[in-house]
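QA checklist item 7 of 12: single-chain prediction sanity check.
[x] sequence parsed
[x] length recorded as 288
[x] structure emitted
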Amino acid sequence: MGSLASAGSGLAHYNSSRMDLLRPDDVGELRRLVHSGKALPRTLPPPTLGAVIELACTASVWRAGGELDAVRSFQEWAAALPLLGDAWSALNGERPVGAVYSATTSDVCSVTDTDAQAFFGNRFRESLIAIGGFTDRFALELAGAMQEMIDNTFQHSTTHPGRAAPAVMGFEVAAQSFSFAVGDVGRGALDSLRENPQWATLPSDDDALHAIIVRHASRRGPVEGTGFQQVVRALADLGTFRLRSGSACVSIVANAGAHSRTAIQGASFPLIGAQIVVESAKNLTAGG
């Protein structure tokens, strides 16, 4: 797969007693349990933001597919984990963005239009400065990058321009660290890329992500994806960038002190739509 390294299919077995945090790959294993007819755990470890967003999208698919036991388990988890409950409300359009700029350690909202994305970006910027301790310039650039990721998801999740599939966006900020994520339950990267005749014959989700990350693929034209690629590289240099769609995922990780990146492509237990997660390295310097 070009310059992408290959990874396995995630955890072989879900075992919450061995986890300190629930991560996006673990959410795939929860989907696998439901698909196999096995019981879900009663409780979950604290989830990362990326896991929260992917789990909310997963629950939406469980609900649409009539997986009532799985939905009940999710509702119990959401009652115990406030951020997960907020993400579920946001995915269902119940947490619209307001013109609120005050700093906060975390927030999740419904993805609607570009105005909402701008409001959300402004709150993220203020939080990066007041809580994260980052410079104004770095916070402004990072908020812009987050809006680019959100808008990309918004634009590519549906075949109807301006009518995106249900989607949720979120961020977390602590001293010298941050994460943000966006997820939708739309058509996914493969179907979106196939709109472009250049990529109409892509055979799989794995090939679609490879085309996006390595070959600068876009659904619109031969060079439309280059701006997105530049943002991805810049974000990956800060820690970890993860893109998941369909049955595939790719993570790009900064190599500390080496001024390089490692891209690892692997499998994901299938889920419609796409999710993007960015996590900074710990104790990131104020200028990025």
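[x] summary fact logged: The longest strand covers residues 260-280.
[ ] second reviewer sign-off
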